[in-house]
Amino acid sequence: MSRTAPGPVSQLPQETMRDRIAELELLRDGIIQGPDPRATDKQHAAGKLTVRERLDALLDPGSFIEVEPFRRHTATGFGLEDRRPYTDGVVAGWGRVHGQDVMVYAHDFRIFGGALGAAHAEKIHKVMDLAASAKVPLIGLNDGAGARIQEGVTALAGYGGIFRRHVRMSGVVPQISVMLGPCAGGAAYSPALTDFVFMVQGTAQMFVTGPDVVRAVTGEDITREGLGGAEAHFTRSGVAGFVYDDEQACLEDVRFLLSMLPPNNQELPPAVACTDPVDRRNDALIDLVPSDPAQSYDMTAVIEEVVDDGQFFEFHQGWAQNLICGLARLGGHVVGIVANQPAHLAGVLDIGSSEKGARFIQMCDAFNIPLVSLVDVPGFLPGVNQEHGGVIRHGAKLLYAYCAASVPRVQVIVRKAYGGAYIVMDSRSIGADLSFAWPTNEIAVMGAEGAANVIFRREIAAAPDPERQRIRRVEEYRRTLMHPYHAAERGLVDDIIDPRDTRARLIRALELLRAKHVPPPYRKHGNPPM
Hints:
The protein has 530 residues and is an alpha/beta fold. It contains 21 helices and 17 strands.
């Protein structure tokens, strides 16, 4: 049987490495450019940067390294099999801020509205796990429409994995949420579990149930902005610590905050060379603080006079304004400052200020930031609403946070410190390492007027001239128990200092305490009031 020889077979040209690289570069360029240019135009028209523009604004130039840019979802149904864009709506990776490595993920609203599906969630899980392993800060740039409805329960499970990782990383590395768009439903609990929340006015909203659901269930008519906009969370709910008019300013302050934080809980915050003399006298304090305990003043001005170069980064400025919390430097080293604000509600402690202070103190203690407490407090705010709202429970949060803090703690009593509020504001009795007081200090169970009215109530009522007798007894109480040296005589204050020496004394005290170490008690964890 004869066989015929096969004819010539045509072969495809073999692709070279250069061909493959060219294909890779073309594909990567398409990923970086993003979807349809019309989606980018729409993003800009809404006053929002694109995901890549945000990363450029946040990170040091040229430092971003992306992970899983070619990731695509594998879901089917509802047309998803025909829409499989690269990145799956989230850009993830790491870069540097002021030379320090950070992990970051950023939603791309142009792809599926930034909604979270299974592949999307796995990318976020990856960078969270890397942040925990490398012990570097985690930043989330949030601009997403919540769970991807077409993927059903798998999307919800993705959020569960994010929440669990937030909790496991809490107090280990700083976690920052930057809200640049909508965040609704269960997704809102992701930023709520992080250490810091930044929001941009007009474009960012957070709520568990939206306006339509609220209207249907309660009959209340409210806009998205009114319900969960930046202003609502900055002044009423306390969810947002920082609010800005535009994304550029917001991201710049994220960078500034990171310059004051350690990368993890095993390291100290970064110190810088101090150009402000450490022994600079605070002559302005003589006129800033009135000696009359009933007269108001702005404690922020006191803080700015004392800290390096007057630079104070305040947290939650619009919420619970009767307590000031923020970061500054003293002698080039980062400190957390907690201070009563006499310019608002006379500086009393209440439910909101107790929560605000407790949260801030816990953050400082977690990340090795020493605490300075400036005290001018008349007590806790009285009232039925406060008592029924749980001021005992909420006040205990502040007390617990101070007592549990193992970082260096220095108290300065600027003026009055009455009752339980004096104890709670980091008194020596609850563990402050050092306590200083100005000559204007008044430390007592309560103000002289209230104390005399209680102690001498019957005597005053029976006197021929009750008012004259009351004034005499008030003055006697003040002279006996409220003079500025009463607490110092009993060892409850370490020294009475000239206000002009406050900066120098604080810097010297913190230098002494820098190596402080308090071994934690043996336990799984405490059970703080919630």
